[in-house]
Amino acid sequence: MNPKTQSLIFGLITILCWGSLAxxxxxxxxxxxxxxxxxxxLIGSLPAFARPKEMFPDLxxxxxxxxxYFGYHFLLFYAFRFAPAIEAxxxxxxxxxxxxxxxxxxxxxxxxxxxxxxxxALAVIxxxxxxxxxxxxxxxxxxxxxxxxxxxxFAWPIYSVGKKKLKATTVxxxxxxxxxxxxxxxxxxxxxxPRVVLQSEDLWKLIVMGLGPFGLAFYTWDLALKxxxxxxxxxxxxxxxxxxxxxxxxxxxxLLVFSTVVAIVLIIGGASAGLLDFLPSKxxx
Length: 285
Known about the structure:
Largest sheet: none
Low-confidence stretches: none
Shape: globular
Number of strands: 0
Distance between the termini: 26 Å
Mean pLDDT: 84
Helix content: over 70%
Radius of gyration: 18 Å
Order of helices and strands: HHHHHHHHHHHHH
Number of helices: 13
Structural class: mainly alpha
């Protein structure tokens, strides 16, 4: 199996895990967000303790990775404090598109083709349908929240693409980034949020969330980026809001309305266009 295909498989595993994040988030909505983040990051770091010598990279990589992990989630969750979650999520879901667009800035040899741009446009239109079909509405009084969400939308792709320019590390270094980010999240929880008495029924949800969307997903995301093209992986990530929506419909009793179906079709179309790099180049000219 060639690296390009392996990268696609790892990317799919990541997106499937992240697609469940909204469902788990809704099941744990009664817990303070940075408590949940801290617990999940620390749980996600546990597999890397099997390779402790490879867990903590050099300082530059550690700072870059922690800024990406903690910074992205800090900006996103603070955006929810200053803007409605629906609209903030719309802006946050721009990150896969941004990732596709900024890749040539970091890697000039990976140029954007017409189908990358078409796929990004379809994904943006689909995301707008997904949000405004549920009653979302952008208002000027929420500008601070929108800017924080936009910061998050830039933070994750800049971390993801930029990490490929840094010194190579093994995948176990992701555990170190999760561990440090988890500590920072718990410190933020102690600073900003009320104390928590964890209920037994929440424990398994935190464990599954920590091992899946905050554990396996980060390891496979790192492998996907190392082995593949950021434009392809970014296009694949367009499917994240689709899977999130499907998960909420199946497991959290959300209603599936017509506008959501239209959004899903558009976003899948955008992802499909963005994955045309798998076709022979002569068929795309």
